Amino acid sequence: MDERILVAILMVACLFLGLFLGAIGAQDHYHDKCRVEQEMYFLWANVR
């Protein structure tokens, strides 16, 4: 289990979610979600 694979999956999911929500005009929520995921990733990287 490589953390980088999991992070890549999360980022791709975040991107697709952004495309989907952007299509229905909810981009602000998408940006907030991605920012939270990035912060969690940096915390995770620092803990390792």
Question: What do these coordinates show?
Answer:
The protein is mostly helical. It has one domain (3-47). The chain has 2 helices and no strands. α1 (3-23) runs antiparallel to α2. The radius of gyration is 12 Å and the shape is elongated. It starts with a helix and ends with a helix.
Features:
48 residues; mainly alpha; elongated
Count of distinct structural domains: 1
What profile does the largest beta sheet have? none
Q: Tally of extended strands?
A: 0
Categorize the overall geometry. elongated
Total count of helical runs of at least 4 residues: 2
What's the gyration radius in Å? 12 Å
Topology order in helix (H) and strand (E) letters: HH
β-strand amount: under 5%
* Average pLDDT taken over every residue: 75
Helix/strand structural class: mainly alpha
Overall helicity: over 70%
Terminal Cα span: 14 Å
Could you name the ranges where pLDDT drops below 50 across 5 or more consecutive residues? Answer: none
Question: Layout of SSEs?
Answer:
Elements: H1 3-23, H2 27-47
Helix pairs in contact: 1-2
Quick gist of this model?
The chain contains two helices and no strands. The mean pLDDT is 75.
